[in-house]
Amino acid sequence: MPSNLCNDFQFMGMDSSFEDSDIVVFGAPFDGTTSFRPGTRFASKAMRPEFIGLETYSPKLQLDLVDCRVHDGGEMYFPLGDVQTVLNTIETTVSEIVQAGKKPCMIGGEHLVTLPAVKAVLQAHPNAYIFHFDAHTDLRDELDGAYFSHATVIRRIHDIVGDERIFQFGIRSGMKSEFDFALQDQHTYMEPFQVTTVAQQLEKLAGEKVYITIDLDILDPSIFPGTGTPEAGGITYRELESVFTAFQAADVELVGADLVELSPDYDHSGVSTAVANKVLREIILLLNKKANLT
Amino acid sequence: MPSNLCNDFQFMGMDSSFEDSDIVVFGAPFDGTTSFRPGTRFASKAMRPEFIGLETYSPKLQLDLVDCRVHDGGEMYFPLGDVQTVLNTIETTVSEIVQAGKKPCMIGGEHLVTLPAVKAVLQAHPNAYIFHFDAHTDLRDELDGAYFSHATVIRRIHDIVGDERIFQFGIRSGMKSEFDFALQDQHTYMEPFQVTTVAQQLEKLAGEKVYITIDLDILDPSIFPGTGTPEAGGITYRELESVFTAFQAADVELVGADLVELSPDYDHSGVSTAVANKVLREIILLLNKKANLT
Amino acid sequence: MPSNLCNDFQFMGMDSSFEDSDIVVFGAPFDGTTSFRPGTRFASKAMRPEFIGLETYSPKLQLDLVDCRVHDGGEMYFPLGDVQTVLNTIETTVSEIVQAGKKPCMIGGEHLVTLPAVKAVLQAHPNAYIFHFDAHTDLRDELDGAYFSHATVIRRIHDIVGDERIFQFGIRSGMKSEFDFALQDQHTYMEPFQVTTVAQQLEKLAGEKVYITIDLDILDPSIFPGTGTPEAGGITYRELESVFTAFQAADVELVGADLVELSPDYDHSGVSTAVANKVLREIILLLNKKANLT
Amino acid sequence: MPSNLCNDFQFMGMDSSFEDSDIVVFGAPFDGTTSFRPGTRFASKAMRPEFIGLETYSPKLQLDLVDCRVHDGGEMYFPLGDVQTVLNTIETTVSEIVQAGKKPCMIGGEHLVTLPAVKAVLQAHPNAYIFHFDAHTDLRDELDGAYFSHATVIRRIHDIVGDERIFQFGIRSGMKSEFDFALQDQHTYMEPFQVTTVAQQLEKLAGEKVYITIDLDILDPSIFPGTGTPEAGGITYRELESVFTAFQAADVELVGADLVELSPDYDHSGVSTAVANKVLREIILLLNKKANLT
Amino acid sequence: MPSNLCNDFQFMGMDSSFEDSDIVVFGAPFDGTTSFRPGTRFASKAMRPEFIGLETYSPKLQLDLVDCRVHDGGEMYFPLGDVQTVLNTIETTVSEIVQAGKKPCMIGGEHLVTLPAVKAVLQAHPNAYIFHFDAHTDLRDELDGAYFSHATVIRRIHDIVGDERIFQFGIRSGMKSEFDFALQDQHTYMEPFQVTTVAQQLEKLAGEKVYITIDLDILDPSIFPGTGTPEAGGITYRELESVFTAFQAADVELVGADLVELSPDYDHSGVSTAVANKVLREIILLLNKKANLT
Amino acid sequence: MPSNLCNDFQFMGMDSSFEDSDIVVFGAPFDGTTSFRPGTRFASKAMRPEFIGLETYSPKLQLDLVDCRVHDGGEMYFPLGDVQTVLNTIETTVSEIVQAGKKPCMIGGEHLVTLPAVKAVLQAHPNAYIFHFDAHTDLRDELDGAYFSHATVIRRIHDIVGDERIFQFGIRSGMKSEFDFALQDQHTYMEPFQVTTVAQQLEKLAGEKVYITIDLDILDPSIFPGTGTPEAGGITYRELESVFTAFQAADVELVGADLVELSPDYDHSGVSTAVANKVLREIILLLNKKANLT
After folding, report:
1. Residue C77 has what pLDDT?
2. Is residue B79 predicted with pLDDT exceeding 80?
């Protein structure tokens, strides 16, 4: 082998083997039900080469990625076909990760990819709670006749876990009936517009397990323009950091995570991709902290 | 007619006929006095196809566009010629809308288009107050010899309505003499930089009628880069939402509105256009609320 | 109705009613099988407001759009669901147009939309020939297991019409087996790389009917960057004009047409959209000429 | 003065004083009658800092800018007001340049700026011929009621000079009546689409004086996307070079020149600006050659 | 000289001669040690033509640029070669400015350019304090073997001035060892993430002299995307304004300033350039205030 | 290992091990002497994920990448420091590839990287000829005092190989003295502007070995805008294809190759990156053909 050459294109610092890892990061590049602007299929591929713009150390969490054992599993491959095949493929992969005692950290793709990931995680952790950060309710019962869709994903998860298990934050867009489903009928806990009650809700769940799904469009489009459906009035990155420190302080175990809806073709300046990578770093550090505790 | 085809390209949900409508939305695509970066002539045309990215329901106002009767009047057509012809054309059109008992909601174009719209509204509502949201004072007496200009528009309105009738918010750019005109000589009420006193000022105007003109560059360029003269230090979208809730709570009647200065060619990510559409939705909901009350 | 307002957002000059028209233009905004960069779903919506940048007169063909009776049917609406539903929807619509004695001119979308349009046209004109202009063979028998795909569309049409009915020009990308299918086994007539033999082939078809499908990526990416899979070495716009003049001179009747694969999100300068509109104008003029002859 | 600092922001190599110069380059940043996409007002300002990307030597003409005495006069300043004032301002400036025995080389701006420049040049050289390179005829008698417009500029020049004095090349867009004015009624010499007859026409004008006006949209949008109305089917840069070598070989004296219609906001890659600068260099070399001969 | 022409391309309003000036603005277009995305070499050239988008008056500081005597020295010219030559060139130039009794205001370029500027200023003002605003610590002792680098610049300045002389604000990225150097070992004063303690620290320095260096990436990427290494979680422009008002109120003398790391090629909307220009205006006003006092 | 995951991010189809390979592809991401617009350091990283947009089969050469044994060696890593270290690092790596009996195919970076690669290849093949395709002569003896530079690279190679060994094509920019060095003094063979004599020159070299270096800016900026110094008047992609077929037909052995000067940040549409990848595929096919013959 010639010297001076490096053909490692994985996320910088995520070079543990699958066997030696505690956390497995991978991309789920599916955007097949996106009704408006597509392109989230390119998110994880765009994030990898830019991760080097970050430091491995998080001054906010005072934790360092070099102290984590992370495997970059690369990209999922979806045979062309119907949505159900994609869902099954993701569920199988996440199950294999969970069965091997590792924690999945999935990069979407559109939000529908969360459904099979949650299903797989619930098999191992049937009592896990779902923390959902998003601009949109994602609580429709169907979208133009489609039962499985980016706009119905949390409703489908509610079908599985029922009431009092889903916590939604930052929501600022949806049909009136969706807000009624959450706020009036209390099928989920919902804090619209803001993320100020995360710590308080986590406090009630001491000792419990939590899956976290972050639709990056919860962030204001000023800091995260690179997404299919930008919605003004979102949270700042600092407010999202308050979520991270709330999880760091809380007595819960993160058992899985995903971040979805980066659409790189709308990210001309590269800022959205850099933001997604920083969120990824913090999420891994939070997944790892709990790994050490248990 | 073949099935499965739809050739309605108006703003989604604004499909009332002129006769059946309470509110008339239209574009005034004029940018002829723009001294720096032109392009606001394309604003309304860029907004229409993107409006579908929004929901019709506003969780902040808890009102729904489906409950409004709105007519999309399309675009004004300006014969080429001098500025005065454009001003006359706008004044005529707005007068026809107001005379028919409907409320005008105009999309600029540069800010000068507000002058003839206000003149037409004042014919029907001679005591109406002007609420002006902007980064710039627009209080010059002339700009390079031009009496009618985007930089003189509020001064021209002051020529008509006089003192104590104009309320300016969010202003953060202008000549010293313009700030003196407002702050020292009190020809207008001006809150520079912020919009914290809107509710308090509206309280004094109980029972009155108000015309609202929003130069979208009042927003910080982080959330609204797509404008000719971006000026840092602006308000956040949430602060603009506080203006909307102040109007919702206030005992005033909105009798007309405009939003100006979106310049789509500088809006590479589409976020500015999405913001303009969300502001348009909230403004229509506010125009409609009062329509129901009176 | 107030004066000075215009809410006609159809293609400029295509304002005949369906009943009064000879030609019906419409968009088929489907990109569901696109395997690389999506976005052709936005093509027709992006083209309409830019059509005004063109003159109605074609100096090359010396024909004028004002002499044609064209109906802009708007956009097709696809209920979410599987590919088969989309194909059926398009076939139904095109059938209705053809049955009404009008000629369809469809704007994709990805190339798969051509399959149902051709099927519908063949019902009325069972002996029609297919002229296919493209960078890619589109002759795969399947793509990753998918039988109906942008990469298999011409193969599916060959399944229907058989040998000696399909003429392919400008092809410069494909698997070896696809080129063998065409060049060696002569299932289609194929001129790779160039369009120099169009006139000669048309000469053999005197008195016949022809359907023309133009994948705009036949053009070199220098003049048409706004497409999902740009492939260098394509034809110039002038070479495409030689195709138009060949059709103008030929004794064949155009019975339908489509142009596909404009992807506006990759068309930062707007040039690709302007090119697509110019091609649309010339195609309509060619469809119209034959309408007058028969 | 501190060392190591340079505050010369003129075109590289055009540093003669006005008095010592043979050629005066300047910008005429006016786009007030542009009916579609504005922005040519920024052309000359965008060109200056990029000129350094070129060499001073032209291998095609085998001439070097270092052998020319060129003054960069900077930018014209237009007081806000009507079009007539702008036209008068340009005419005055060009007259001053011509009266001082120098040759004007003007950078637009929209094409209307050519009218006053030609008028000023004709005062000194009343028999000069006009060579017009463009995608558009610019022969309308009026545009939406406007007599002076980018679309009427050559017609206005014809009003002054009459038949047999204007030579048009590369034209590929216009109304039928405009082409008839030129081709049928022979009010001008017009070679549509191409520039193959330039040398032949110049041959007939041996010993004569010529003013050259280049609307850069004569170039195909593939090489020149940065313009307001891109029109496919234009000439290549090499074909434009054949125009330059034709002028170099011809026995005519260039007495003035302009290049117009670069619109930098649509030139994302910077290629159009680089092309405009290269054209500027060649034009100056051609202006200079004749200066030496007379 | 022809009338109506203006060839002054300096920053608007900075037209004092070097001799008559109090403040000298100049560009230091060096990005040779940039390890990730280069391009800051173009910052000052991009800022000049856009400065006209600003007013000369600052409503926040209530000061006007027309009351300052500023010389635009243009751009530094760096002979190609090693980094040391660049550093020496800058140090020489800044020394000449300082020796002439004027205050330097330098526009980078990457952050390394601050080192020689500070060295030159310290020669005249050996007790000056360094106020450093940045997203990054810049406290590495070396970067990939390089002792002089954008990532080591503040460490190199610490080598010169020692402890208790450097004040760092807004820092949110770095290696753990860098934060330890500052926060634990207190070699510098560091307020991470925020700028809330600026006024308090300045209060302790009454009567002292201060050099201010602003890495514009201290701003959140939402308002300043145009930089090589965008780092989410930064300060808002209003928070930066609080720094300006703190300096205005403080009893310290600003003896020099720089602003670095604008990278225009990543500033598609132009907002970052507009922000940099506004910061430049405020910094000049602050430099000038103290000039009047002493 | 979980199924359905793929973490191979190398160039599609270049998955031979180093030992099993005939050809080694690698990136040399250096742009340290670029005097105008930098960014070629990102070229190879941008090309890898886009290579999948191509087919493995070349219809022009009728060869298929699946029949080649290619190793993607990844990226070179350059310790920060002076230019000489970079040159040494490249020379070492290429020597190791050549000594192992494989052929190097290097992706720049700026053109200076060719110098050490050629030196390493000449050690094994001392009589090899250099075929140089470029817009620029690259024959300066120094650039602003720099002996090793992108503008001097071919001159430095001439220093080594002497007269009659370097063949230059497509050159259209340089100083007069550079053209004189080549055309008048015949130190190299140079065909300016065109590539029409490649086959004829290769014919004279029957049985010889050739190294090919392609500065992609030889292509016209219409098809290749994504480069630091776009120069109008370049060759079309089809003309470059004629070079490939000339090499395919010629009786010479290609012993190494490079392609340089793609700058992805200026390639907004992605077309330049797609072109670079297509050139890479053809070059590998040509390198492989000769490997089989010898």
Report:
1. 84
2. no
What proportion of chain A, given as a percentage, has pLDDT over 90? 86
State the pLDDT confidence band at F232, using cuts at 50, 70 and 90. Answer: very high
| Residue F292 vs residue E232, higher pLDDT | E232
* Measured distance CA(F209)–CA(F251) in Å, rounded: 9
Alpha-carbon torsion angle B60, B65, B68, B71, nearest 10 = 130
Cβ proximity of A198 and A244 under 8 Å = no
Q: Is B25 helix (H, G, I), strand (E, B) or coil?
A: strand
Which residue, among C214, C268, C271, C279, would best test binding to D if mutated, counting the most D CBs under 10 Å from its CB?
C271
- Collect all residues of chain F within an 8 Å Cβ-Cβ radius of residue A77: 4-6
Prior bond of D207 cis (ω within 30°): no
Instruction: Residue E2: name the closest of D253, D118, B144, D72 by CA.
Output: D72
By the 8 A CB rule, do B117 and B86 touch?
A: no
Whether residue B241 and residue A233 make contact (CB cut-off 8 A), yes or no, is yes
Contacting residues for F204 by C-beta, under 8 A, at least 6 apart:
none
Reported pTM: 0.96
Buried b / exposed e along C8-42 (16+ C-beta atoms within 10 A): ebbbbbbebebeebbbbbbbbbbbbbbbebbbbbb
Distance of alpha carbon E203 from alpha carbon E185, whole angstroms? 23
**Pairing verdict, β B57-58 and B63-64:** antiparallel
Q: Does F150 touch chain E (CB under 8 A)?
A: no
Least confident of A13-17, B152-156, C174-178, E277-281: A13-17
Which of A171, A172, A266 is nearest residue B270 as measured by Cβ atoms?
A266
Delimit the domains of chain C by residue range. Answer: 5-290
Sequence-distant contacts of F79-85: CB under 8 A, at least 24 apart: F79/E144, F79/E145, F80/E33, F80/E35, F80/E143, F80/E144, F80/E145, F80/E146, F80/E149, F81/E145, F81/E146, F82/E82, F83/F32, F83/F33, F83/F112, F83/F148, F84/F148
- F151 has a pLDDT exceeding 90: yes
Q: Residue B135: CA atoms inside 13 Å, Cβ hemisphere, count?
A: 25
Select the residue from F184, F229, F231 to test the D interface by mutation, using most D Cβ atoms within 10 A. Answer: F231
The answer on pLDDT for E100 being more than 60 is: yes
Confidence of residue D35 (pLDDT cuts 50, 70, 90): confident
Confidence (pLDDT) at A292:
47
Per-position DSSP letters for chain F, written without gaps between them? --TTEE---SPTT-B--TTT-SEEEEEE---TT-SSS--GGGHHHHHGGGGGGS-SEETTTTEEGGGS-EEEEEEE---SS-HHHHHHHHHHHHHHHHHTT-EEEEEESSGGGHHHHHHHHHHH-TT-EEEEE-SB----S-BTTBSSSTTTHHHHHHHHH-TTSEEEEEE-B--HHHHIIIIIT-SSEEEES--TTHHHHHHTTTT-EEEEEEEGGGB-TTT---SSS--SS-B-HHHHHHHHHHHHHSS-EEEEEEEE---GGG-TTSHHHHHHHHHHHHHHHHHHHHHHH-
* Count of Cβ atoms closer than 10 Å to residue C92 Cβ: 16
Contact between B248 and B61 under an 8 Å Cβ cutoff? The reply is: yes
d(CA D204, CA D129) in angstroms, rounded, equals: 12
CB contact under 8 A, D7 and E72: yes
The one-character DSSP state at C118 is: H
Of residues D79 and D85, the one with the higher pLDDT is D85
Q: What is the rounded CA–CA span in Å between residue E177 and residue E66? A: 46
Whole-number pLDDT of residue C225: 97
Q: In this structure, which topology does domain B5-290 adopt according to CATH?
A: Arginase; Chain A (3.40.800)
User: Cα–Cα distances in Å, from E166 out to C169, E156, E188, E246?
Assistant: 70, 11, 5, 17
